[in-house]
Amino acid sequence: MSSSNSSAPQAAASGASEGDPEARGIPRDEVPARVPGRQRLAYSLGHVLNDLCASMWFTYLLLFFHKVIKFDNFLSGIIMLVGQVRNEAMSPIIFMP
Fold it and tell me: What pLDDT does 31 receive?
């Protein structure tokens, strides 16, 4: 048995909480620091603004397909769906380490 596995029960027995990384056998230097509250709020706000921008883009694109190119509603929706499925299918491949 390795030393990291044997330290986990000892840490748990010494009163460490289950949420404590050392109680699960994870060395303290490998645990990322907590993100400060202001930075977390900024990330959250950026995420919301990104979603708003994406929804505006999709709305514009649907209107463009329907009003300018004169596609019917069904075809416009299918084009949007195919684009989203392709995007989601390619994301794991493109962002693979």
Answer: 60
